[in-house]
Design brief:
The chain has a single domain, classed as Vaccinia Virus protein VP39 (Rossmann fold, 3-Layer(aba) Sandwich), CATH 3.40.50. It contains seven helices and seven strands.
Amino acid sequence: MIELNTLNGADRILRFVQSLIIADFPDDYLIGVEMGVAYGGGIEALGKLWKGHGMVYGFDTFAGHPKELSLDAKSMEAVCMDEHYANFGHHKLTYKYQRSELDRQGLSNVILVKGLITGASCASLPFLHYCLLDLDLLISMEFGYAAVRDKIVDGGYLCLHDVLSGVLPGLVPWYAEIKKDWEVIFEGEKEDLAVLRRKSK
C-alpha cells in the first residue's frame, strides 16, 4: 500500500510519535484514528506497529478526494490530489482493495470507515490516544477536529498535515487558532506536519 507522506518525510515523524504512544501508555489498549487514508499506507504501517497494542480506524471516502466540498473548484484544496491520481491511479484508493490488502497481512486491528467526515464520525469510540487529520479541505478538517477534539486522552497526540506551508492557505489560520489549546511538540514546514499533545488537566 502507498503512503503519500513518505514523499515529504512526514511518515518518519508519524512513526516516531506512534511508537512513543506505545511507551507512554504501556498498560492501555490503544485507539488511533487516521482521517484521510488516501492509498492506505499510513494505516497499514500503524496497524503493523500497533498489532497487539491497539486498534486503528481509517476514515475516508475510498472513492477519491471530495473536491465538491471546496468553495472554489480550481483552488489547491480542490485539485491537490490530482497529481497523485495521475501517478498512482484510482484502484488502490478503494475500500475493497485496501480491506483485501489489510486482511492478506492479518491486520484485523485496522478498521476502515467509509464516508464523508462529520462532527460525529468518532461517536462510537470511547477515547483516542492518537489522531492524524490529513483531509486537505478546510471544512473536512473542521469536522474532523470537532469529532476528535474531546476524545483525545490526557497526553494523547493530534497530528495535522498541510497546516504550515501555506500550500492549502485556509488551513494555516485555522491551525494557528486551534493550537492554542494544545502543547506543541513539533512543527515541521518541510514535512508540513504539526504534532500536538493534549495538555494534562
